[in-house]
Specification:
Helices cover 93% and strands 0% of the residues. It is an all-alpha fold. Helix 1 packs across helix 2. The longest helix has 31 residues.
Length: 45
C-alpha cells in the first residue's frame, strides 16, 4: 500500500506528470510501429 501512495504522490508532482506522459507517448509510438510492421508483413506474405 505504501508503494501506491508514493507512486500517487510522484504522479502529482510536475516531474511525475511529465514522466508519465512520456511513458504513455512511448507506448503509443511502440504500438503504432508494431501495427505498421504487422500490416506490412501481411501485405508481403
Amino acid at each position: 500500500m505504501g508503494y501506491l501512495h508514493t507512486f500517487w504522490n510522484y504522479l502529482r508532482s510536475p516531474k511525475g506528470r511529465h514522466d508519465f506522459m512520456d511513458y504513455i507517448r512511448a507506448a503509443v509510438i511502440l504500438a503504432a510501429v508494431m501495427a505498421i510492421i504487422r500490416v506490412m508483413m501481411d501485405m508481403l506474405l
